[in-house]
Amino acid sequence: MLKDWKIATKLNILLVFISAIIVVLSSLFLAILLRHNSEEVIAEKALVLIETMSSIRNYTSTQVNPKLASRLETDPEFLPQTVPAYSAREVFEDFRNQGDYRDFFYKEATLNPTNTRDKADDFETQVIKKFRENPNLEQDSGFRSFAGGDVFYIARPLSVSKESCLRCHSTPQAAPKSQLATYGRENGFGWKLNEIVGVKMISVPANRILQNAQKLQSSVTSILVVCLLIAIVLINAFMKITVTKPLTKMAQLAQRISTGDLSQEFKHPFNDEMGLLAASLNRMKVSLEIAMDMLTSDSE
Prior knowledge:
By secondary structure, the protein is an alpha+beta fold. It has a domain of 198 residues: 2-Layer Sandwich (Beta-Lactamase). The protein is built from eight helices and four strands; from the N terminus they run H-H-H-E-H-E-E-H-H-E-H-H. It has a four-stranded antiparallel sheet, with helices on both faces. The radius of gyration is 39 Å and the shape is rod-shaped. Pfam families: HAMP, Tll0287-like. InterPro entries: HAMP_dom, Tll0287-like_dom. One of its GO terms (molecular function) is kinase activity.
């Protein structure tokens, strides 16, 4: 059956096969490239958020805490608004009400926090230890697994950079009375100046990254498929004009010559391979015509 196929059919099959290979290989390459790109985009957003939370922490520590510090000794309950971590988390929750950040999560995971909700889990503990063992390490990122799926995270070390922090975290005897009344004397003490006590961690579900990558991949792949289809159409049109159509006409001319019709010749306007073939066919016709005339003369 293959020997009965026309050149155009064989060419189209070859083009489709090549196009399919290009699409498959491009999709695999794009999947890797676009996932990496999506990670970078989300990482940039996360880093901006971490820097924002750091600024909020600093503002709370330098502007809010001094104004409310005296009340920590007199109020019956501890004022969480004086704690930088509380301010950062509250502001971040407001960020999450916006569409672009609803899938982001922020936690100041601490080894020995005053509020147990900030207690580092096993994975976060290992990240904290990594920062402690590598003082020059400024950032850590990657994926971690939960029951609901993988999560992409970015973490930065959280250290005791100001002596004012030690008021609440050095010893129970130095802590404000309202803090002891609210949280007790067991947690959040023993911190030291410049010690890494936790991490600021922002995480986002991995499917968010995959969805972004898949959307871009689908768009790019669709554009690639359309471009390849246009290329196939253009190649077919070019082959029809420059190869198939001239070959068909030369085949028809050769058929007439074989039956003795020497009245026509094939004219090709280009000096390409088809032009050389046409010239050869015309020379063959002329030679055959001369030979026929010579035979006719000899017979007379």
